[in-house]
Design goal:
- With 343 residues, the chain is an alpha/beta fold.
- The protein has two domains: 2-201, no CATH class; 212-342, no CATH class.
- It has twelve helices and eleven strands.
- The chain has helices spanning 7-15, 53-56, 93-107, 114-121, 170-176, 186-201, 212-216, 224-229, 237-241, 286-304, 315-319, 326-338; strands spanning 2-3, 19-26, 29-34, 60-67, 76-78, 86-91, 123-128, 154-158, 162-167, 248-254, 258-265.
- The strands form two sheets. Strands 1-9-8-7-6-2-3 form a seven-stranded mixed sheet. It has a four-stranded antiparallel sheet with strand order 5-4-11-10, with no helix packed on it.
- Strand 8 (154-158) and strand 9 (162-167) form a beta hairpin.
């Protein structure tokens, strides 16, 4: 048990051992940043607009550097891997679960990403249970919920004037060692249970997503994608704030006396996303790009890595300027799966 009047001392203890990221307020916006002071951490919040994904997969990062002098064309300098011991504090359960999917994409199989992997292996996740889910939250559509501990090393639960900390992994138990936190008493345990029950009661009824990939196999040529894409303006907001979108572009930037190879986030909503050097684009319109988005998240990823490319955080629902609701998209897809000959 961690009483809230001891929160700053707890964060300070972490900062002596780790680099600590947490929600902080910057110009009226909450965002995950490295703390310079324990008092900067804001844990009384719904969720951040941007996911903490960028801590492990930066929006822009340099992969290698190279020289430009005539006699040094092949001189390449590797960028040191970033592996500073790091704690991400106050991550909501939906965001904690998103790291599980990113781990499977970047750290499993024959090809692994050394940049992501180095950061991930040096990072501990302390998730904060979601005691006030928003109306746009639909994490429970993925067999999850606001108190899901998946993806976390430690789960924090609201208990009135205190937080209850549960070690979820061995790494989490090791992190808590030496912090001298008292065991939770009966009263705080009961209060935590009551708050959790109230949080679950706030969730709206939702149709489970499980199994949707089976129907998507038959919708590749469906007209439903044109219908879904009609009001999309291709701004890419949904992809940039999504905790699980991970597509990227790599380019060589030539500077005055040197150059660098840079990786940056990209978005399947953009017209140039799969544009070939020849000028041909296999996804020439927004309908085919929306097909790719839905197929990637709800067909290809569950078949390839065993997890969906969505955690139901609802960020895209809140941020879309034309209110294109992914929940309604999934419902329309289910209808098309049930009657593929009509679309």
């Amino acid at each position: 048990m961690l009483t809230k009047d001891r929160l700053s001392a707890f964060v300070e203890a972490l900062m002596r051992r780790y680099r600590v990221f947490a929600p902080v307020r910057r110009a009226e916006e909450l965002r995950f940043e490295a703390l310079s002071s324990a008092d900067e951490a804001v844990l009384d919040y719904r969720n951040t607009l941007k996911a903490p994904k960028g801590i492990l997969l930066p929006q822009t990062e340099c992969l290698i550097r190279f020289q430009r002098p005539l006699d040094q064309f092949n001189a390449v300098d590797a960028v040191p891997l970033e592996a500073a011991p790091t704690v991400i504090l106050g991550v909501r359960p939906c965001d904690a679960r998103s790291f599980l999917m990113l781990d499977r994409v970047f750290c499993q199989g024959k090809y692994t990403d050394p940049y992501y992997k180095a950061r991930r292996e040096a990072t501990w996740i302390i998730s904060l249970a979601c005691d006030h889910p928003r109306p746009t939250c639909f994490c429970h559509a993925f067999e999850s919920g606001p108190y899901d501990s998946a993806g976390a090393d430690i789960l924090m639960r609201e208990a009135g004037d205190a937080y209850l900390l549960q070690a979820v992994s061995d790494r989490g138990a090791q992190l808590l060692e030496g912090l001298n936190l008292p065991a939770a008493d009966v009263a705080h345990l009961a209060q935590a249970e009551e708050i959790e029950a109230q949080a679950r009661a706030r969730l709206r009824e939702v149709t489970p997503v499980k199994g949707i990939e089976e129907g998507l196999d038959h919708l590749f040529e469906s007209k439903v994608w044109q219908e879904i894409a009609e009001k999309c303006i291709a701004c890419g907001t949904c992809t940039y704030i999504c905790p699980e979108c991970h597509c990227f572009n790599i380019e060589d930037r030539v500077l005055l006396s040197r150059g660098e190879r840079v990786r940056s986030w990209d978005a399947c909503m953009y017209s140039t996303f799969t544009l070939h050097a020849s000028g041909h684009n296999p996804r020439p319109d927004q309908a085919s790009r929306w097909r790719q988005r839905v197929m990637h998240k709800f067909n290809y990823l569950p078949r390839n890595v065993g997890l969906y490319g969505c955690v139901g955080c609802g960020r895209c629902v809140l941020a879309c300027p034309v209110r294109l609701d992914i929940r309604q998209v999934l419902q329309r897809v289910r209808e098309a799966c049930a009657a593929p000959d009509r679309v």
